[in-house]
């Protein structure tokens, strides 16, 4: 059981109450986040594949990737999205969680770069389906990172619970 001091400290530092879930509830939340994240990553990859040249142009406009590396970098992002999406709900979920967390970090850094440097080219995060300006692109990237981080924390909590045979997991 979480002490009142821990709960108050968490509320003070994080601004949100500490959430304590029973093992079954935490697993359900973990699977729900994994399914939503997998669907979003797969949709993003498919949409980018359908408008691959626009995705490449957006990468070129960022001035982060040398011209000769644009196609390999774009293809690598697509491959990572597909692999992450296709493994998040399988026994290889640890691979999917790691890729999703890495992609979320990469997306936040890329969106931040575009925003800070005033690069107004649309992000093509979801191909032709969704074109966002830098602030909205940053918000979407941050939500991907938060979802991937939450999934990693939930998974680690579940693993810890299985290893320690505890009946509840505290999710910060």
Automatic annotation (TrEMBL):
InterPro entries: Methylamine_util_MauE
Transmembrane segments: 28-47, 67-89, 98-116, 136-156
Localization annotation: Membrane
Principal location: membrane
Matching Pfam families: MauE
Positions of the Methylamine utilisation protein MauE domain: 30-152
CC annotations in GO: membrane
GO BP annotation list: methylamine metabolic process
Keywords linked to the UniProt accession: Membrane, Transmembrane, Transmembrane helix
Topological type in the membrane: Multi-pass membrane protein
Domain of life: Bacteria
Protein name (record): Methylamine utilisation protein MauE domain-containing protein
Species, as recorded: Fimbriimonas ginsengisoli
